[in-house]
Amino acid sequence: MSEEPKSALHRPSELETSGHVFLKPVLPSLYVGAATGACGAAYGNIAGTLIQTSSPLAYTSLAATQWFTAGSTFFYCRSVLLSGPLSRDSGLHKVAASGIAGSCSGAVASAFLPRGSLVTGSIMLGVAAALSQAGLNTMEGSTPFSGMASGITSRIAALSPMKSLSDKEYEDLLRDKLLKVDVEIAVLDDQIADLRAAHEQYSQKGASRTRPG
């Protein structure tokens, strides 16, 4: 009886969290889309003038809409991915999020182009976004595969018979070796003492034999 109310109480919080992940990037995505749309309008105006289209205004509007949808889609998808399944603290996750968002943005932008360019646009923009993010990670000093490399390095170090020692461990190791050396020196001293005693006994016996009877 007590489990059902608990689950009912937990469900709204999970829904609110997931809804927050999807709704929070909407407004910033529109701002980014407006900025990219302005760049697209400028590009469309210049390109329409250079190629001398029959309707420069329509060409400019189409370019602005294309850039707006591409920019807003990229920012929204990347923000959702980094707020949900992926982490902003991982360089590899940033590259993956940028690549996926770039593919989605490329698909949306390719919808304004002739048929057959959907897959090509998705791949090209996805690869370009992933490479750009990898370059930014390198400039920031964090390589996208640093976490993977550190994990592989730690595994190799665990399998290796050699390991790095702390100062205390190194001191204890030297102390053990010194104790072993002291023991070996003590054994050698005992052996030398036995040899000297045997030599003295042999000398005394030889001297007693050489005395005249």
Main sheet overview: none
Q: Encode the helix/strand succession as letters.
A: HHHHHHH
> Count the helices. How many?
7
SS-based class? mainly alpha
Estimated helix fraction: over 70%
Q: How many domain regions?
A: 2
- Rough shape? rod-shaped
Beta-strand residue fraction: under 5%
Low-confidence stretches: 1-12
Distance between the termini: 117 Å
Overall average pLDDT: 77
Number of strands: 0
Radius of gyration: 39 Å
What descriptors fit this protein?
mainly alpha; disordered N terminus; 82% helix; 213 residues; 2 domains
How does this structure look, described?
With 213 residues, the chain is an all-alpha fold. It folds into two domains: 3-159, no CATH class; 166-213. The chain is built from seven helices and no strands. It has helices at 3-23, 26-51, 56-83, 91-110, 118-139, 146-159, 167-210. Helix 4 (91-110) packs antiparallel against helix 5. The chain is rod-shaped, with a radius of gyration of 39 Å.
